[in-house]
Amino acid sequence: MRTAASAPSKRAADFQWRPPDRRHRRRVADIAMATGAFRPDEIEVALEVFDDFCAAPGVDYRALAAFADGAMAGFAFYGPTPCTVDTWDLYWIVVHPDFHRSGVGRGLIERVERDMQNRGARMCVIETSSRDDYSASRRFYDACGYKEVARVPDFYDERDDRVTYTKLFVGVPSPRVSARGEDEGRGEDVRGTALRNSNS
Q1: Where does the record place the N-acetyltransferase domain (predicted)?
Q2: Domains identified in the chain and CATH numbers
Q3: Is residue 77 classed as helix, strand or coil in its secondary structure?
Q4: How far apart are CA 114 and CA 109, in angstroms?
Q5: Residue-wise burial string across 134-162, b where 16 or more C-beta atoms lie within 10 A, e elsewhere
Q6: What phi and psi values does residue 13 have, to the nearest 5 degrees?
Q7: Cα gap 130→40, rounded to integer Å
Q8: Strand order of the sheet with strand 87-95?
Q9: Which residue, 81, 150, 156, 164, is most buried by CB atoms nearer than 10 A?
Q10: Confidence at residue 174, expressed as pLDDT on a 0 to 100 scale
């Protein structure tokens, strides 16, 4: 949620929520670019994650997108964190500026959290930027119940800290994810790199 755009007429209930597929690759890049929050190399990483998801959905990454009249309005990429027990990362959550303040960001994060919990997650981790133009994103995470737990000074660049947020899920029954990064029920290998997010 990098900027506050004027709200469109649609509400969250008007959107369709489903995983994206290969046809949406260009739209993923366009949405990330439209926010103005990401460098070209960061957008390339988002596309690498998207390609990995499309090649093997649910193995390394999971994905969810919001659609309005067939056009993608926002997306989220997430998955189990390697070498942890039931910790998950929300790697990317990005909403096109045309749909800021429409409930897309909230709708994505709520559905992602529900999917995580259904798969036994006990914690979600988000990493984002300390820059002023990410202040709305940080307020969004606060409003969604996330707590800032750490900062790494100058991580992304000079005067651009990495800010880590976490949210604990309570009372979640679990298909356990082992310390090797494998789901013990399905034998899935899970890997990924968390990046800063831009959402609404």
Answers
A1: 20-170
A2: 15-168 (3.40.630.30)
A3: strand
A4: 9
A5: bebbbebbeebebeeeeeeeeebeeeebb
A6: -65, -20
A7: 19
A8: 16-18, 62-68, 71-80, 87-95, 123-129, 160-168, 147-157
A9: 81
A10: 52
- Whats the size of the chain, residue-wise? 200
Residue with tokens 């909230």: 106
Residue 137 confidence (pLDDT): 95
Dihedral through CA 10, CA 24, CA 189, CA 94, nearest 10?
Answer: -40
Is residue 12 very low, low, confident or very high in pLDDT (cuts 50, 70, 90)? low
**Confidence at 125, pLDDT banded by 50, 70, 90:** very high
Amino acid identity of 41? D
How are beta strands 123-129 and 87-95 bridged, if at all?
parallel
pLDDT at 122 over 70: yes
Residue 200 has pLDDT above 50, yes or no: no
